[in-house]
Give the backbone structure.
Amino acid sequence: MIATLSACAHAPQPGTAATAISSLPAEQAIKFVVLPAESNVFTKAAQATNNSLLHAQVGGLGVAQVSKVSLEVVQLAIECVEPSLTCYEAVGHSLAANDLLFAQISAVTPQQLKVTITLFDVDAKAPRTRAEKVFASEEEATAGIAELVAEVTRP
């Protein structure tokens, strides 16, 4: 386990997350970034979540820039892996974003999953809106995630 943690703490190799994060021109000011969701256990729910996030429109924030990597990958790249406001702010700064839209998917039981959708204001260092729901199954989550995303992105 120590070797695994140690491996995660080292800087990423060229061609990995750091490249994807820094691939945007420095002069391009990104205002609103959508980060894709990941889940090795609930892959269908992650795909449904990403479909909803990619089509979400948030009034006043303009067109979203879609990150090539997930929240977790960005956090590893900047070595800030805590689920905290400070880390989310650091993620936003690393992506030159003022606002982030992201999802977190976690297992509650082997069948149940919790999906949390957050619209985060990087400058205010706080969520604009946030919603979470525990779904009884991946199928239920896949059917209900669009409404959860809509709840967070409504004006």
